[in-house]
Design a protein that fits this description.
Structural class: alpha/beta
InterPro entries: AAA+_ATPase, ABC_transporter-like_ATP-bd, ABC_transporter-like_CS, P-loop_NTPase
Organism: Geodermatophilus obscurus
Largest sheet: 6 strands, mixed
Number of domains: 2
Shape: elongated
Number of helices: 11
Strand content: 15-25%
Order of helices and strands: EEEHEEHEHHHEHEHEEHEHEEHEH
Keywords: ATP-binding, Nucleotide-binding, Transport
Bound molecules: adenosine-5'-triphosphate
GO molecular function, one term: ATP binding
CATH superfamily of the largest domain: P-loop containing nucleotide triphosphate hydrolases
Number of strands: 14
CATH architecture of the largest domain: 3-Layer(aba) Sandwich
CATH topology of the largest domain: Rossmann fold
Family: Belongs to the ABC transporter superfamily.
Strand order of the largest sheet: 6-7-8-3-9-10
CATH class of the largest domain: Alpha Beta
Length: about 325
């Protein structure tokens, strides 16, 4: 490792639970819970305005939540003994324009009690050794992103929290970032939480994703699980010769069931086991019972089509012609 130590950083797990934040009348984050494991890249994915930045700011103790908590191995950010050596963050990329990237890192190191020699190590790690001697004011957005990442790495933290770090990078930069984040997690055992509004980017970078819409958790799981549609509660399709009675039984049990024109009953936020058990208890005959196979693309497509209106527990709005790539910040 660049820090000169041979052992990797100690593994630290992030746990977010019941996180809630309202700004005026806007519920930016609502009862959000998820975990981020060491040794893997977790993508925090959601359309613009889904509450990603607000969540990350709460995780980093920059905003006080109305309810809930975010902890690093059980300790909130504000109570960490050595925050800079525990969590490295990239939220905004603002630097003193007249200062070189290297000087920025040296000033930051001194303030954080880190040996200044570390500045050159992290510059090298992000490929800014030469550019590091030039004024940061002349940096491209991609170079500023690299410098921000270098700043986050100064304390050799086991945890990295990055808000849209791929923003402004050219294709080559994106490829580099992807490999770098995976290396930090897979080879060095760090816990990497990285937000993005682009599914394609997260699919190629992350091992797991936490998907949010309208401040709520929509899904979390490994890319493989989510791609296969084998994720817990979702949309269940069920057919019965007694469709109306089935809807009444399921609704009576608190499930969101609706009957379509074709007689097929759709149940949202349930598993086939939930639906089967309720139908059995209500003595309703079933002819077909299956989970709708919503792949990751379709799920995210619906989410971005619905944008802020999407609500996790409710029926997803009908998909319209919106591509996940089309979203921009
Ligand atoms: N300080 C604030 N005051 C008022 N509303 C806010 C504030 N910060 C965020 N919001 C609102 O909270 C919601 C979530 O915003 P947030 O920036 O967290 O979303 P995001 O997923 O990061 O989106 P983006 O990628 O567009 O930044 C939005 O409706 C936003 O307008």
């Amino acid at each position: 490792m660049a820090s000169g130590t041979t052992a990797g950083p100690r593994p630290v797990r992030i746990e977010v639970s019941g996180l809630t934040k309202t700004f005026g009348t806007v519920r930016a984050v609502s009862d959000l819970g998820f975990t981020v494991e060491p040794g893997s890249v977790t993508g925090f994915l959601g359309p613009n305005g889904a509450g990603k930045t607000t969540t990350l700011r709460m995780v980093l103790g920059l905003i006080t939540p109305d309810a809930g908590s975010a902890t690093f191995d059980g300790v909130p950010y504000a109570a960490l003994r050595e925050p800079v050596r525990t969590v490295g963050a990239v939220l905004e990329t603002a630097f003193h324009p007249a200062r070189s990237g290297r000087d920025h890192l040296r000033v930051y190191s001194r303030a954080a009690g880190i040996p200044v020699a570390r500045a050159d190590e992290v510059l090298e790690r992000v490929g800014l050794t030469t550019a590091g001697r030039r004024r940061a004011g002349g940096y491209s957005l991609g170079m500023r992103q690299r410098l921000a990442l270098a700043t986050a790495l100064l304390g050799d933290p086991p945890v990295l929290v990055l808000d849209e770090p791929a923003n402004g990078l050219d294709p080559e930069g994106i490829l580099w970032l992807r490999g770098f984040l995976r290396h930090l997690a897979h080879d060095e055992g760090r816990t990497v939480l990285v937000s993005s509004h682009l599914l394609s980017e997260m699919e190629q970078t992350a091992d797991r994703v936490v998907i949010v819409g309208a401040g709520r958790l929509v899904r979390q799981g490994s890319i493989t699980e989510l791609r296969s549609g084998a994720q817990g509660a979702g949309t269940v399709l069920v057919r019965s010769p007694e469709a109306d009675r089935l809807v009444a039984v399921l609704s009576g049990a608190g499930l969101a069931a609706t009957r379509g024109d074709d007689g097929l009953v759709t149940v949202e936020g349930a598993t086939p086991a939930d639906v089967g058990a309720r139908a059995f208890a209500g003595q309703v005959e079933l002819h077909e019972l299956r989970a709708e196979s919503t792949g990751l693309e379709e799920l995210y497509f619906r989410l971005t089509a619905g944008q802020e209106q999407f609500s996790a527990g409710a029926a997803a709005p009908g998909a319209t012609a919106v591509t996940t790539e089309g979203a921009s910040r």
